[in-house]
């Protein structure tokens, strides 16, 4: 071998090496980029990572099931105890780590799960104080369950700033001191318990929620309604009076006092009996404003006052509640002349009276055959009441899912009629109404049915009234889990309401109509299936088993072709990519084509507005319609 050839060979090796070096460098860089994309920038991943790191896990549950080396989109969603807003998106919706033997203090890293709605750490061995800045850590939770742990110290005042709480459970801990009275301001609370702690002092006064003595049981020194009255104040005056009476030495005095006490106690106990048996305390708080007139739209001859509404609903008694929606509770109002109306009590509107009235004026002018007509409204103190025409058959949700024998009596043609009418109403709101209205809260609970099972959409235009600052946040944090299955996947990311978001929600309603399943829980799905209705149907479609999604009671009655076409329209509506979803106008036309042979009567056709820019869509629509008609 010559020196020359040796050099050439050496150069060759060097060249090879430098090439592979660069290659390796590129790979490293790529790895780094990928890892920083899929991990570093991903807040919710770092949230779970820090929870895992900060808690001791003697049973190795997190250790064995929370594997962060994966990095595919949505990989954390399959972790034990984790639910995401959407299976392909690392955005945590709820954390359930109950009964896992976890030890340590409250994990601060949870702050990075910024869209968290449910936190359940119950039945573990967590200790230390509940952090004072808890409202900064979990600002949007609607359910917080820290029960059966060893948390100690005081209940932080800041908990009252978690204003979206519906469920708060702190029982079976070692919390001590007084309960911050501010907790009484949590106006959305439906379930509350701090039983079995070491608490003393007066309990907070919850205006409207259903907090009972059980919520406070087994604490050493709690007092005040609904427990026995706090002694300190009354004892003082009692002894004061007794000492006074003794000093005067008048026996008669004590007799009078005894009589007075007797009557006082009797009156108090009578008063207690009458205390809020129906949970309609608020209704009595507006009695003083009974004479207020209900503002009616149009030239209604019917003059109403608040007192008429109260009479017609038995003071908004429980027996007259016909529905709980995202926007508030609906009551049946029966007037003396036999006419029926619905009254909706809006939940938590925080707009000024002026803004509210101007919004009402707009909504009062929105009239269409497929919408529930708003007849009037009334402002009484903080209460906002809306008066609607009565819908005899309630909500589509109840018709589909609340049948005692488990199956719905709605026949297919009725379901199809409901879908077409509801689609027409929404298409009108999106395309023909001026100003255009995005509903934002479509669910089977806001499609109501009149005596003839004609669908009418309700709650349109109300989303804007619900939240003072971030109007677009209202559906996101309203705490109604029922509406969860309806939220479009992009919404959790962008929090911007769009017409295509409405289309997604409507697609879910269509899926409910054809499968008879609820959006969040699919009874027919295999046991290990964790997804919602949309995910289930998409899964079936992928494995060419779409037919299995259809409600069995509808199959084999001559509608099979329609059912399948309907299901396909629904699937288009719930496309993950908003751009792939049809517009509401297209949805209406597609459904109408499916139901053409029934000649459902329709007073109102939607005319495609002329200023629309999407001429291409019309072309596609015609093609799509032909496909459906002639397939
Ligand atoms: C990553 O996670 C996904 C979703 O859970 C799973 O299907 C896949 O097998 C995982 N990959 C690895 C390498 O663990
Ligand atoms: C939240 O995540 C970021 C990185 O995404 C991290 O720097 C920060 O420390 C985390 N915050 C908490 C409280 O863990
Ligand atoms: C809450 O307070 C703790 C210390 O008390 C701090 O480490 C943490 O960053 C705070 N979290 C937020 C979200 O403010
Ligand atoms: C709760 O919110 C109020 C008003 O926004 C604020 O002034 C107060 O500091 C907060 N309290 C805590 C403990 O975070
Ligand atoms: C009771 O409900 C009314 C109206 O929804 C609300 O304004 C008020 O703040 C509530 N009271 C309490 C103590 O939560």
Can you offer a commentary on this structure?
The structure is a single chain. This protein is α/β, with parallel strands linked by helices and 631 residues long. It folds into three domains: 3-223, Ribonuclease Inhibitor (Leucine-rich repeat, LRR (right-handed beta-alpha superhelix)), CATH 3.80.10; 278-390, Phosphorylase Kinase, domain 1 (2-Layer Sandwich), CATH 3.30.200.20; 396-630, Transferase(Phosphotransferase) domain 1 (Transferase(Phosphotransferase), domain 1, Orthogonal Bundle), CATH 1.10.510. The protein contains 18 helices and 20 strands. It has helices spanning 3-40, 43-54, 61-65, 134-137, 231-248, 251-274, 281-285, 306-312, 353-364, 396-401, 412-432, 463-466, 489-494, 499-515, 533-542, 560-573, 584-594, 615-630; strands spanning 82-86, 89-96, 103-104, 118-120, 125-129, 143-145, 150-153, 167-169, 174-178, 191-193, 198-202, 221-223, 295-296, 321-325, 328-334, 340-346, 374-380, 383-389, 447-449, 455-457. The chain has a six-stranded mixed beta sheet with strand order 1-2-4-6-8-10. Helix 14 (499-515) packs antiparallel against helix 16, helix 16 (560-573) packs antiparallel against helix 17 and helix 17 (584-594) packs parallel to helix 18. It is globular and about 65 Å long. Residues 1-17, 24-41, 233-260, 262-278, 467-482 and 609-631 have low confidence and may be disordered. One 2-acetamido-2-deoxy-beta-D-glucopyranose binds next to helix 4.
- The count of β-strands is 20
- Determine the number of helices (DSSP H or I, runs of at least 4 residues): 18
What ligands can be seen in this structure? 2-acetamido-2-deoxy-beta-D-glucopyranose
CATH second-level architecture of the largest domain: Orthogonal Bundle
Strand order of the largest sheet: 1-2-4-6-8-10
Domain module count: 3
Average pLDDT level: 78
Largest sheet: 6 strands, mixed
Signal peptide: 1-40
GO molecular function: ATP binding; protein serine/threonine kinase activity
EC number: 2.7.11.1
Subcellular location: Membrane
């Amino acid at each position: 071998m010559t020196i020359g050839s040796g050099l050439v060979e050496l150069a060759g090796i060097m060249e090879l090496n430098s090439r592979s070096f660069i290659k390796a460098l590129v790979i490293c860089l790529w790895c780094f980029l990928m890892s920083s994309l899929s991990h570093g920038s991903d807040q919710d991943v770092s949230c779970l990572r820090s929870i895992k790191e900060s808690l001791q896990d003697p049973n190795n549950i997190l250790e064995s099931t929370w594997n962060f080396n994966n990095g595919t989109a949505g990989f954390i969603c399959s972790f034990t105890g984790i639910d995401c807003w959407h299976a392909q998106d690392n955005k945590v919706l709820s954390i359930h780590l109950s009964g896992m033997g976890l030890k340590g203090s409250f994990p601060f890293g949870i702050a990075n799960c910024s869209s968290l709605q449910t936190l359940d750490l119950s039945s573990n061995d967590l200790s230390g104080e509940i952090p004072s800045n808890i409202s900064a850590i979990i600002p949007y939770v609607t359910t917080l369950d820290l029960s059966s742990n060893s948390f100690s110290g005081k209940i932080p005042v800041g908990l009252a700033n978690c204003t979206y709480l519906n469920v708060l459970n702190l029982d079976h801990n070692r919390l001590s001191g007084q309960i911050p009275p501010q907790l009484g301001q949590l106006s959305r609370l439906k379930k509350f318990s701090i039983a079995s702690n070491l608490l003393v002092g007066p309990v907070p006064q919850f205006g409207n929620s259903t907090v009972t003595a059980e919520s406070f049981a087994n604490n050493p020194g709690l007092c005040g309604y609904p427990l026995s009255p706090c002694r300190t104040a009354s004892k003082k005056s009692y002894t004061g009076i007794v000492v006074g009476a003794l000093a005067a030495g008048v026996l008669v005095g004590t007799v009078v006092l005894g009589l007075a006490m007797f009557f006082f106690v009797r009156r108090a106990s009578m008063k207690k009996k009458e205390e809020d048996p129906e949970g309609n305390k608020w209704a009595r708080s507006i009695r003083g404003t009974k004479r207020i007139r209900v503002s009616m739209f149009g030239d209604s001859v019917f003059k109403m006052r608040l007192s008429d509404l109260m009479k017609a609903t038995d003071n908004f008694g429980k027996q007259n509640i016909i529905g709980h929606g995202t926007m508030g509770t609906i009551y049946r109002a029966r007037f003396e002349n036999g006419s029926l109306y619905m009254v909706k009590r809006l939940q938590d509107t925080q707009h000024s009276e002026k803004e509210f009235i101007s919004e009402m004026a707009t909504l009062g002018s929105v009239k269409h055959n497929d919408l529930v007509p708003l007849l009037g409204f009334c402002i009484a103190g903080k209460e906002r009441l809306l008066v609607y025409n009565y819908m005899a058959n309630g909500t589509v949700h109840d018709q589909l899912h609340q049948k005692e024998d488990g199956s719905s009596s709605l026949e297919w043609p009725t379901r199809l009629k409901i879908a077409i009418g509801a689609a027409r109403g929404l298409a009108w709101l999106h395309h023909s109404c001026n100003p255009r209205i995005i509903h934002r809260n479509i669910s089977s609970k806001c499609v109501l049915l009149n005596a003839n099972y004609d669908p009418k959409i309700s709650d349109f235009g109300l989303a804007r009234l619900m939240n003072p600052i971030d109007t677009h946040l209202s559906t996101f944090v309203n705490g109604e889990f029922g509406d969860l299955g309806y939220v479009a996947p992009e919404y959790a990311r962008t929090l911007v309401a769009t017409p295509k978001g409405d289309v997604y929600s409507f697609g879910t309603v269509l899926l409910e109509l054809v499968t008879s399943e609820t959006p969040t829980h699919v009874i027919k799905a295999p046991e290990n299936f964790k997804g919602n209705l949309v995910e289930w149907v998409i899964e079936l479609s992928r494995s060419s088993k779409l037919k299995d999604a259809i409600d069995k009671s509808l199959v084999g009655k001559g509608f099979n072709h329609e059912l399948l076409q309907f299901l396909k329209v629904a699937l288009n509506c719930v496309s993950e990519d908003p751009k792939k979803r049809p517009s509401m106008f297209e949805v209406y036309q597609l459904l109408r084509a499916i139901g053409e042979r029934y000649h459902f009567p329709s007073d109102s056709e939607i005319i495609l507005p002329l200023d629309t820019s999407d001429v291409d869509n019309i072309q596609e629509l015609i093609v799509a319609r032909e496909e459906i008609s002639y397939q």
